Amino acid sequence: MSGVTTVKTALFNETYHAAYEYVSDFTAFTLLGALRAGGISLNEPVRESGLHALIACEEQNRPLLNWAIHFLEQQEFVRRTTGPEGAAVLELTPKGRDWTNRGNPFPAVHVAPSLKLIEYAGTFWLESVRGEIEPRHRLFNREGIALWEVYFHNAHDLYAVHNQWAAEELADLLPAEPCTILELGTGFGSATRALLTEIRLRSKSVEEYTVSDVSRLLTTKAGRMLEGELPPHKLRQVTLDINEVKSGGETYDFIYAVNVMHCAEDLALSLDALRRLLKPGGTIVLSECVREHYRSRLHQEFIFSLLPDFKPVGGADGDVSCFGFLRPEDWRDVMQAAGYRDICVKVNEGPVRGAIITGSRED
User: Fold this and answer.
1) Mean pLDDT, range 296-305, rounded to an integer
2) 157-290+326-360: what CATH class?
């Protein structure tokens, strides 16, 4: 990948990748379970067009169904063959018939928050693609919020690696003198805590740390959770929508975000607006889940594709959609389009799971 650097990091080790693949298989297992619960079985070969008819997917949700079929095929739970008259036929593979939920065979990697949220989404996935329910109502009811809070936590190893990698990268960039930091999409505060821990380990200090989110409730909650992490006069809370960033006010030495920016409606426009919030010579540090190419589907998409912010991206194989997560080279290109200099995109060695994207405002 031109303009993208592959780096070795202990965060993405062999055990992590094995656990990630297990969760991907669990997602395929959950998808098949959702279909069976709706009376749709793949025990016998079925035409792909027939499966579409059985599911009765709303036209606007057809990308969700296309994603699901290709994900099942990618995880080798389903095989696609050519039937009579050239029609595409789907049938279960031995893996799809026999795979068993073992809970988590990799105890060294805590993945239960992923498994529980995937399992929960599976209980209403079919209703969602049929347009019978609004999935946000389930994902953000009391039960859903409790699952999200555990998911976006540094004890959840499958997610925390993105927080930790970003925290280490930014903490290494901080100067000896105190500086100002704006964090985007603070959410439940796990990325904040990872960064503040790394700052303390390096005996560095912050002049002012601003937590922000589109949700005033989350911003306030994060502020309360961070009491004691920073002196009150150094911690600010603001409501900020990454789609409506306005310049002309305060500027910052660093802007920091973990798995936030891919939700922007117009990524280049939002990044350009954020660049104007940096002081001259200031740096943005982004940590993002990424895909190596648009033929790869990520198990995270099973959940996140139900949210309106996760729009189809790419266009692999013509009518096949992926959702939200970009390729490393896409980040390089959009950072250039947004006017950053000294752009650096790092990806982990091995199966590509994450990227650190940095860029600076001109002096």
Assistant:
1) 96
2) alpha beta
